Amino acid sequence: MTEGSRVVVSGPRNHFPFDPAEDAVLFIAGGIGITPLLPMIACADERGVDWQLVYLGRSRTGMAYTDALAKYGDRVRIRPDDEYGISDVAALIRDTDPGTEVYTCGPESLLCAVESVCAAPETRRSLKLERFVPKVIDTDGPDREFEVEFAQSGVTAIVPADRSILQVAEDVGVDIISSCSEGTCGTCETPVLDGTPEHRDSVLTTEEQESGTTIMPCVSRCRSARLVLDV
Ligand code: FES
Which of residues 98, 130, 162 is at a domain's end? Predict the structure, then answer.
């Protein structure tokens, strides 16, 4: 890049939008994870959504924005561990109607617990969450190489077991905009035209991953022998 080079600039991306498909929403905040939920709560309240917030933390004195939340009355439950003990996340979710949508942000242990409860058949709920660190991914065996076709670019290449799709794209001159390279920001999201993605990102919801329509090529791989991307 030199002085005078042209750069492409886009607006901010938001992979944690508040757009509830259901009439009831349960917000679960852990510590400073309350921050992205605050504007969602204001929006839900304005729209007349039937919402509840459970705000978890170690102690009340370390929990931000409790004053700002006071105006919402009993829609908000503030549950510091040193007053209430460790909260039972499964029970919180089980107590909601099955159609309730869950939004959560907080430490990884909380996010994993909420994910697990919302994925269980008896407590299945639609879930949206935001991670700041990559989640731990269980892989079934060592990585394998596969073929990737970058359809718009007219380039086909092999992705070796020890390289990412994004790295291979860079090698062969295919431009995929990226940022974190660890599957958390969503910048590199690329449409899939064919093949079965093996998702390893921390951005897409379970439903989005199951649809197989996009992939984060910085971390995700392919279950089939060939993957065709719309780039
Ligand atoms: S570059 Fe951030 S998710 Fe791929």
Answer: 130
